[in-house]
């Protein structure tokens, strides 16, 4: 005859719904002593181990019960097999006195087994309620980390200081944490593995507050435990007790749920009709029913779809609408944890979808990226997965199709082709070297049914068949890509820049979808690009560069430290982790399963170290322990070093100026302001490799964030003088703000606070760029024209040098004189379609417009009028030195500059009117001085020493420059007039530092003369030395010029000859077919263009020869696109 012990275990092992309910009815107090002699398993262990068999034998739809990998939903709780399992669990622990912290022969508790057995995660929240200690170690050092938000536990190793569970909270004397567990119905009448009760354990700490709170919660927690055990007899004792200490809180709720879950609702959702008697008993004593809670659940279920933020983004028609949506994220009523009912998508998934849906609106996409960063800062779980198991990172990587590149490409051309509903046609931020090429998505796959800490006891459910399928898929895609043409590869990778932004948010790239696909670095073509493909477990564990981001590396670090790997391997992983954080400025404070990177690193330190005591863990030698402590401490120090910088980067990208100021106030502001993404994707090279560039944070802030954020960084001291080496760069960072994908408000902030003395790689100033923007605007874009006029006025008021010329000899005023109208005149009779810059939605502040509005016509002044009025005002306030500088620079329209209000007066008339005698005399002699300068320059070019001697000492002619910004010393060196060059260097040694319109000093040319450096060495001797690190505007030093010349590089060999052959351009107000080809345009991709509305033109035989010639010269370096109409 079977004993009660064997009968109970037999019923549990039978693993049917009926056997579980039978066992439930037979549980008594004696079953707490039952233990299997061979394995040491208690009935609780048997219950957890039998759960997979119970699920298989039940008739429940498993698809419904596993629909969400992140959260235990109400639908999951209502599965038929859950009710008997949960009821038996409570009955064994509460009535059977089976200890929940009992360990079997391997040291595993029921909590350990629930992390390993399929479907057993449903019991974890109940085990925590019953007082399970998740931090108990088994024989292999594995413990459980339980996340109260997701109601999930995970096996971990190598984290001795991990904080989890009510027992640990009491040990740390963390009153708030203890209260949190008590409000989640954690049972107080429970013992630990050593037989000590929770109350005694709390009393041993000496904390009266913790002991008092546990005592107060005891009656309520027991009522909950007996209610869940369906024990009406004991429930009546608590409900009818009149003793103060046994009074229960009938309005108690489990605060770990959102919204908080009442007891009756928990009973109804878990047991259904089987708990009707218990529910009626509780209701008779005044406990609120479940209807209010279920109504709240329904509201939460539909909250995502009716959320004001979602509606605002979905219905957004303008950038202003997205700015309003940004403000909604700060609303107290906004619940960041809501999910979309149909697929479990989070708000981040939603924004990624909207991002791809706005492929034809690149400015919209940038605003959406800003919202993503804002969501992360307000507490969104960026690791959240939808019903398909995809994080937002995987969702973005799965999207194919980027038919046009609208982001960093200056020569944006062509129409964005339509894609199917399964494709995302974004104006990709990806381009191909040497031309505009779209980039798209390649399938990458990964093995992820893993616990979040793959450093130890990683529980993977990947099947052999899945591995075979993944291998075949990977090999097939690799063969296909290797056999494809280079141009075809661009359609096989996802939007790289969006993926990099999501990595910066801190999303774990090792988390894959249900097909075990995850984001990885491509090992084939295009090499090193981010793609989605099946994850090879062994490869991912051995290759640290396979998975991008910080989480995979910190998992490897924890595993290496816990397994006592060699010091060299640990040091290598630390270096890789630092490199990964710097590559994307990965947020250190991002959470995965409730823990940040820094908290996870601190958990690696032994508890003795946290308390300033060097205790050694059991089973670890002193040498090994010290090595672990050292590695963990280095990791903590590394993460602490980057915490402030990454938080500032997050706030800057989100446009949160308040948080930015707070980060700067914490110190180390220079490092934060000048932070860079060390490995930012730039393009796919011709050899099918992804190329990367170091990208300063300020550029991404200009491009994605708000004008206020960019302005704050500039005012705080962000360095925008640095040369940006990207192929589509203008040179110094400040000129990035003048790209057409940058909001004009941001450009205005740069004009207010950026350095005005900088010049781009073609010698253009910020004023040139501002004028060029004006000619990219449609004539109907009144707001845009007012913004540009204000930008020009701001630059002039700040003192930008008006007389500087670019490499084609044009001042900003030259660019402002009607080239757009000229295009219309010269293209008359040809059908062309002009693509303009997107119109500005908002006008500037009306208080700032009075200086750019004509008081008679109430229309905005033209740029020429604004510039001329500025020159006249210089004369009005007797700025003699500035007028002298304009004359020396060859700025001709000085005398005739006109001020129309209140009466039309030229600069000369105004100087005479205000009795500025010296200035009036200078202005009257300006034509004579300009003729003398030309004569002096011709004398230097021809080597006429007598003519040179007669003119050089007159006025300030020694400082004059020609149309290319070349000084007299430049001309003497270029035309090999050695005697005059030596004479000039004796007269004025500072001429050797003057830069022409390309930033070259006379020494740049002297070292490339091909005379065995004879003149160069003589000049150096006369000056007493030269700094060979001086660079031109393309960031090339004098020393590099010499090295390239010696190597025979054609550009440097022919440099001086080409400069000698250059001739001044045609008059600036005319553009004809005889205009010279820009000399420095070759090999450059992104430069300031003529103020024309086009960058490339489709050739047509119908175009007349004059227009064809103009297009050949000007179309190669302009910003807009002219395309031939289909008609």
Strand percentage lies at 5-15%
Q: Summarize the biggest pleated sheet.
A: 3 strands, mixed
* Unreliable stretches: 60-77, 402-487, 612-624, 820-832, 1068-1127
Helix content: 40-55%
Based on the structure, what is the oligomeric state of the protein chains?
single chain
Overall shape = elongated
Mean pLDDT: 82
SS-derived structural category: mainly alpha
Distance between the termini: 97 Å
**DSSP helical segment count:** 53
What gyration radius follows from the Cα positions, in whole Å? 37 Å
Strand order of the largest sheet: 5-10-11
Number of strands: 16
Please, could you describe this protein's structure?
This protein is mainly α. Among the domains are: 1-162, Alpha Horseshoe (Serine Threonine Protein Phosphatase 5, Tetratricopeptide repeat), CATH 1.25.40; 166-303, no CATH class; 307-548, no CATH class; 853-924, no CATH class; 926-1061, Ankyrin repeat-containing domain (Serine Threonine Protein Phosphatase 5, Tetratricopeptide repeat, Alpha Horseshoe). The protein is 47% helix and 5% strand. A 3-stranded mixed β-sheet has the order 5-10-11. Strands 12-16-15 form a 3-stranded mixed β-sheet, with no helix packed on it. Strands 1-2 form a two-stranded antiparallel sheet.
């Amino acid at each position: 005859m079977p004993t009660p012990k064997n009968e109970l275990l037999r019923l549990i092992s039978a693993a049917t719904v009926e056997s579980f309910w039978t066992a439930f009815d037979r549980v008594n107090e004696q079953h707490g002593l039952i233990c299997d002699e061979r394995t040491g398993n208690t009935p609780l262990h048997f219950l957890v181990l039998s759960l997979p068999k119970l699920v298989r034998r039940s008739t429940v739809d498993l698809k419904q019960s596993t629909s969400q990998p992140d959260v235990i939903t109400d639908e999951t709780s209502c599965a038929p097999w859950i009710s008997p399992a949960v009821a038996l669990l409570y009955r064994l622990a509460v009535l059977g006195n089976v200890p929940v912290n009992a360990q079997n022969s391997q040291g595993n508790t029921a909590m350990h087994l629930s992390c390993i057995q399929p479907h057993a995660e449903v019991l974890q929240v109940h085990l925590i309620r019953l007082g399970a200690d998740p931090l108990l170690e088994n024989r292999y050092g594995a413990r459980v980390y339980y996340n109260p938000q997701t109601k999930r536990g995970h096996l971990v190793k190598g984290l001795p200081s991990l904080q989890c569970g009510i027992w640990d909270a009491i040990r740390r004397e963390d009153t708030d944490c203890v209260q949190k567990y008590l409000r989640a119905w954690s049972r107080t009448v429970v013992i630990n593995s050593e037989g000590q009760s929770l109350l005694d354990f709390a009393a041993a700490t000496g904390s009266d507050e913790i002991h008092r709170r546990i005592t107060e919660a005891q009656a309520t927690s027991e009522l909950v435990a007996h209610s869940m055990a369906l024990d009406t007899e004991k429930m009546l004792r608590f409900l009818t007790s009149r003793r103060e200490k046994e009074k229960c809180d009938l309005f108690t709720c489990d605060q770990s749920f959102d919204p908080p879950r009442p007891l009756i609702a928990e009973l109804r959702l878990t047991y259904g009709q089987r708990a009707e008697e218990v529910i009626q008993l509780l209701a008779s004593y005044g406990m609120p029913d479940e209807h209010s809670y279920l109504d709240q659940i329904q509201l939460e279920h539909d909250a995502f779809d009716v959320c004001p933020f979602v509606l605002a983004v979905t219905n957004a028609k303008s950038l202003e609408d997205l700015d309003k949506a940004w403000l909604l994220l700060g609303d107290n009523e906004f619940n960041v944890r809501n999910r979309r009912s149909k697929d479990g998508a989070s708000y981040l998934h939603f924004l990624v979808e909207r991002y791809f849906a706005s492929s034809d609106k690149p400015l919209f996409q940038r605003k959406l990226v800003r919202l993503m960063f804002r969501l992360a800062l307000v507490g969104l779980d960026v690791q959240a997965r939808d019903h398909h198991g995809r994080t937002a990172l995987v969702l973005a990587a799965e999207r194919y199709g980027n038919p046009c590149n609208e982001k960093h490409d200056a020569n944006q051309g062509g129409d964005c082709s339509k894609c199917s509903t399964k494709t995302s046609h974004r104006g990709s931020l990806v381009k191909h070297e040497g031309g505009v090429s779209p980039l798209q998505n390649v399938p990458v796959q990964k093995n992820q049914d893993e616990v979040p800490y793959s450093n130890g006891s990683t529980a993977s459910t990947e099947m052999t068949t899945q591995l075979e399928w993944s291998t075949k898929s990977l090999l097939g895609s690799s063969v296909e890509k290797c056999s494809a043409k280079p141009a075809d590869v661009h359609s096989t990778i996802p939007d790289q820049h969006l993926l990099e932004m999501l990595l910066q948010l801190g999303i774990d790239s090792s988390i894959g979808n249900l097909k075990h696909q995850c984001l990885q670095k491509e090992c084939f073509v295009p090499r090193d690009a981010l793609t989605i493909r099946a994850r090879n477990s062994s490869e991912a564990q051995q290759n640290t560069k396979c998975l991008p981001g910080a989480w995979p590396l910190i998992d490897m670090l924890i595993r290496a430290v816990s397994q006592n790997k060699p010091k060299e391997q640990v040091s290598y992983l630390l270096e890789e982790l630092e490199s990964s954080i710097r590559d994307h400025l990965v947020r250190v404070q991002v959470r995965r399963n409730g823990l940040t990177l820094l908290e996870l690193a601190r958990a690696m330190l032994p508890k003795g170290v946290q308390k300033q005591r060097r205790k050694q863990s059991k089973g670890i030698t002193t040498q090994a322990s010290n090595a672990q402590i050292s590695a963990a401490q280095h990791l903590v120090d590394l993460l602490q070093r980057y915490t402030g910088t990454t938080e500032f980067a997050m706030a800057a990208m989100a446009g949160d100026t308040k948080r930015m100021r707070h980060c700067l106030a914490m110190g180390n502001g220079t490092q934060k302001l000048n932070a860079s993404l060390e490995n930012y994707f730039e393009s796919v090279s011709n050899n099918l490799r992804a190329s990367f560039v170091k990208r300063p944070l300020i550029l991404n802030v200009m491009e994605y964030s708000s004008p206020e954020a960019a302005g704050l960084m500039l005012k705080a001291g962000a360095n925008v003088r640095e040369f940006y080496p990207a192929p589509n760069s203008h040179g110094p960072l400040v000129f990035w703000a003048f790209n057409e994908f940058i909001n004009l408000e941001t450009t205005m902030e740069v004009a207010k606070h950026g350095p005005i003395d900088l010049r781009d790689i073609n010698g253009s100033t910020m004023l040139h760029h501002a004028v060029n923007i004006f000619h990219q605007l449609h004539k109907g874009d009144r707001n845009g024209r007012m913004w540009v006029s204000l930008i020009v006025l701001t630059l002039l008021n700040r003192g930008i040098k008006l007389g500087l010329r670019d490499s084609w000899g044009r001042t900003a005023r030259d660019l402002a004189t009607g080239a757009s109208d000229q295009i219309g005149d010269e293209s008359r009779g040809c059908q062309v379609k002009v693509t303009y810059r997107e119109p500005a939605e908002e006008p500037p502040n009306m208080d700032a417009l009075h200086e750019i509005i004509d008081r008679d016509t109430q229309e905005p002044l033209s740029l020429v009028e604004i510039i001329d009025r500025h020159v006249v005002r210089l004369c009005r306030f007797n700025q003699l030195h500035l007028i002298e500088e304009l004359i020396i620079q060859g700025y001709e329209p000085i005398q005739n500059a006109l001020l129309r209000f209140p009466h039309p007066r030229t600069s000369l008339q105004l100087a005479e009117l205000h009795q500025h005698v010296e200035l009036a005399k200078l202005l009257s002699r300006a034509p004579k001085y300009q003729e003398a300068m030309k004569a002096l320059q011709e004398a230097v070019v021809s080597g006429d020493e007598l003519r040179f001697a007669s003119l050089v000492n007159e006025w300030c002619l020694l400082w004059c420059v020609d149309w290319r910004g070349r000084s007299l010393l430049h001309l003497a060196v270029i035309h090999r007039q050695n005697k005059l060059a030596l004479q000039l260097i004796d007269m004025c040694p500072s001429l050797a530092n003057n830069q022409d319109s390309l930033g070259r000093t006379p020494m740049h040319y002297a070292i490339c003369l091909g005379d065995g450096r004879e003149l160069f060495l003589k000049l150096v001797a006369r000056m007493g030395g030269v700094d060979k690190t001086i660079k031109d505007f393309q960031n090339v030093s004098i020393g590099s010029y010499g090295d390239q010349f010696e190597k025979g590089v054609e550009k440097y060999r022919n440099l001086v000859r080409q400069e000698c052959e250059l001739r001044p351009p045609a008059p600036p107000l005319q553009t004809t077919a005889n205009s010279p080809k820009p000399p420095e345009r070759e090999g450059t991709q992104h430069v300031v263009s003529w103020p024309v509305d086009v960058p490339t033109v489709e050739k047509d035989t119908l175009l007349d020869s004059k227009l064809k010639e103009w297009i050949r010269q000007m179309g190669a370096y302009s910003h807009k696109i002219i395309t031939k109409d289909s008609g």
